[in-house]
Amino acid sequence: MRRLMYEARAQLASPVRNPRTATVIGRLLGLAFLLCFGTGLYSHFLQQPLPWMTFPTRPAGLYQVTQGTHIVAGIACFPLLLAKLYVVFPQLFRYPPVTSFADFLERASIALFVGASLVEITIGLLNTYQWYPFPFPFRQVHFALAFVIIGSLLVHIGVKLPLIAAHWRAAPADGPEERHPVDTNAEDTAAVALAVTKVSTDEGLSRTGGITGRVLSYIDGAPDLPARTSRRGFLTTVALAVTAVVGLTAGQTLAPLDAANVFGPRKKGVGPQGVPVNRTSAQAKVATAALSADWVLTLAVGGTERVFSRAELAALPQTDVDLPIACVEGWSQMAAWRGVRLRDLVDAAGGSPDSDLRLISLEQRGGFKQTEMGSEYVRDPLTLVALELNGETLDLEHGFPARMIAPGRPGVLQTKWLSRIEAIDA
């Protein structure tokens, strides 16, 4: 078995499959996952804050940047993860598969990391298209898997730290080229060579010398190794793959790349009033209530309730702001909004802008039919109960008769089809 497994590894010989390449790809992959993890936590707690949390409202496009980074880094993980698996693939044929508890811990952590990572980035990509063919809730599983990935990654790094440190920097230009399998050591070399030379089957004797020579030359870095793929060519291919998948989707976030947005599920400027839409009025089943002549916005603040018709809201002092809609799927669109400052409306109803608010939509179902807004947003002069978008009356698909728009908030919290605003302690 040892001979067969090592022969399989020898057949996979390549200048690409060595600790230096594994380290280079691994640190890029680790950086991508750390970016995803940090920006993902920020997005999660914006939507489900802990009681003590407050969030910055400047820069106004902060969430546009953080969530765009989250999606771009997640997409980059696809070619990087596949490249890392290609480099370390021969390790599947190591014999014995486990040599110590630390070795078991490392192999178990990498198996968990790879499995969780593949699921995480796949369901994340499907979420950008709002397609959920899996039988579990996306948000909860996506959040939990993030911790599994980071935990298993830390264990893997801890076990492999000596190897990573040894190959973090490039070898000197005049140094020997590495041509051994990832993690091979002198003891493994000697054991395998001895096992190979002891093979004595009739069909194997004639092949033993060739196998032994190939194994030893493979490990010792002999120049006769067939260079199927050069290291430079491999890294160039990985770089081009990352550039392609990012460049062809990042235009949904980055305006300069909009023309190259081939695969992004949303495109800038496409949608009612030139702004894309995620949840439609038909999906929310709000058209009848939203278009009703007797619609009013109820404010329950300061211990009293006050109602405003749309005409009364339009008669109040209006403010113009430029703010993006930035959604968790990674797309964003800057737009011009006009409406009543929330803090002025709360003040007119006898409330305090230092109160946290609950925003209630006309829609009866959905995870964001009610959202909460911290006082930092209520006080901000850019936060509006918006009545117009891009110089026109708010379209039904964008939240007519009134919606919320605030700086630095995810699109799912920019509540459309407003019905009621109330102080959380009311």
Automatic annotation (TrEMBL):
Pfam families, A to Z: Oxidored_molyb
Chain segments annotated as transmembrane: 21-45, 65-89, 110-129, 141-159
Classification via InterPro entries: Mopterin_OxRdtase_euk, OxRdtase_Mopterin-bd_dom, OxRdtase_Mopterin-bd_sf
One example GO MF annotation: oxidoreductase activity
CDD domains recorded: SO_family_Moco (cd00321)
Residues in Oxidoreductase molybdopterin-binding domain copies: 293-425
SUPFAM superfamilies per record: Oxidoreductase molybdopterin-binding domain (SSF56524)
Record's signal peptide: none
Keyword vocabulary terms for this entry: Membrane, Transmembrane, Transmembrane helix
Taxonomy, superkingdom: Bacteria
The name this protein goes by in its record: Molybdopterin-binding protein
Protein source organism: Cryobacterium adonitolivorans
